[in-house]
Amino acid sequence: MIRGHGDDIYDFPVIRINFSSNIIPAGIDTALKNHLCSCMKCIERYPDPLGENLARQIEQQNYLPADSVMITNGAVEAFYLIAELFQGKRSLIFYPSFSEYEDACRKYNHRMEFFHHTTFGNVDFSGIDLVWICNPNNPDGRIYDQDKLVKKIEDNPNVIFVVDEAYTNFLNCDISLEPSLPEHRNLIIVKSLTKIFAIPGLRLGYLLAAPSTIDGLQRQVMPWRINVLALEAGRFCFSNLVHDKQEVTGYLQESRRFQDAINDIEGFRVESSSTTFFLVEAPLSAAVMKKHLAHNNGFLIRDASNFRGLSENYFRVSVQSPKENNQLIEALKEWS
User: Fold this and answer.
1) Residue 175: pLDDT band by 50, 70, 90 thresholds?
2) Which of these, 255, 261, 257, 294, lies nearest to 277 by C-alpha position?
3) Residue 248 half-sphere exposure, CB side, CA atoms within 13 Å?
4) Which of 155, 190, 250, 283 has an alpha carbon within 20 to 30 A of 177's alpha carbon?
5) What is this structure's pTM?
């Protein structure tokens, strides 16, 4: 999907508050911004061809096995590389979820099957080659139980489980499967650095997998595809920045208040989320609401009608400051 991801701020002349993008509400860290400004001269040289220095740094700091990390041009590149490595295979995708799993599989001729997320515990994975899961899930913020997920991975050693963990830092609990990586060669974990550090324009992510899988993926890519500023940002983030759990807890508390307030508006129904973004079912078309809010209020919401399994009335919002959230609440009350 080239267009339709929701953060289409370029399509509207004046957006004051962007509720459509799932990045940390505080924005880019001041120290990171200053560091990037100070190292602009680095763009005069070529970047590390495969970003291997950053990969080794991540392995060492996270106590991961050697050669188990690959740097990617955002998490999306990781999905396309995985689909290419296993092209023509049979993939199962639980919906509603991030559309790029399906798009990547279609590009590389996967035979796809789709199951609603509520069936996860009962699905028979026999005959399936890859399973794609987002945890916590985009767009609804639901969480797959960590123990049940590991049990599925253990019980199906011939199935590759691709687990997108782009939003694990937006929780006050640890659900990452990183500790399980050394024991399961059929596990691939995809991570994003753009969400928690608010640098989506730099396109920086990484994936974790068995060294043999990493080797296969590396053989598919061209050199220098990760720009030098992105690599500098990654090195700085892993060396100097930590995730403030207290700050995240504050965002989650505001998320709960925000969800409850919208759910109390007549005609609107919120799907309860454990993280900082959530789905809302509106009393009319989300596309109509999006254009109205953008042009009349300067608010951008995510029209979620193009997620498989959702109707045209669904939109997604991501928590901002309490003051900004209240402005959206008041705007939605006008529709009610």
Assistant:
1) very high
2) 255
3) 18
4) 250
5) 0.94
